[in-house]
Design goal:
148 residues; mainly alpha; DUF7144; transmembrane; transmembrane helix; membrane; DUF7144 domain-containing protein
Length: 148
């Protein structure tokens, strides 16, 4: 017997050709997740930044900050949120530059959340966790592995 296929059988995986040119890039589920989370984080950072700038009362009173005050952190988070909204649009437009900008801005947001975690601890921890997932989703992006 030969190890090849008989006349009535198709070669294994013949129906799924592998694209080696990269022309048919498929969207990864992690990149879609990261894009959605970048937009959600951008909206939330914008809202929380505006609230901090206007000295809203839902932040913890008399919190001690590492570098400055709540108003400064509000401006930082507001700027990060606006950038995240633009990056999210770029991720959905499949722009390579937006992916790497997304990694950078998620890292910056992670540090900002660490610095003002005393003002809003639970939201800060949630944002940090989402930033880690966004970084993972944008860095690990790639085409589906070829079938063996």
């Amino acid at each position: 017997m030969s190890s090849g296929t008989t006349s009535g059988q198709a070669a294994p995986y013949a129906a799924h050709p592998v694209d080696t040119t990269g022309a048919l890039e498929e969207r990864s589920g992690w990149v879609t997740f990261a894009g959605v989370m970048v937009v959600v984080l951008g909206v939330m950072n914008t809202i929380y930044g505006i609230a901090a700038i206007s000295n809203s009362t839902f932040y913890i009173a008399d919190a001690k900050y590492i570098l400055s005050d709540l108003n400064t952190y509000g401006w930082v988070v507001l700027v990060i949120g606006i950038i995240q909204l633009g990056v999210g649009a770029g991720i959905f437009a499949r722009m390579q530059f937006a992916r790497w900008t997304g990694v950078f801005i998620a890292s910056a947001n992670l540090v900002a959340q660490l610095l003002w975690i005393s003002a809003f601890p639970l939201a800060g921890l949630a944002f940090i966790a989402l930033d880690v997932l966004v970084i993972y989703g944008l860095v690990v992006h790639g085409r589906k592995p070829a079938a063996y």
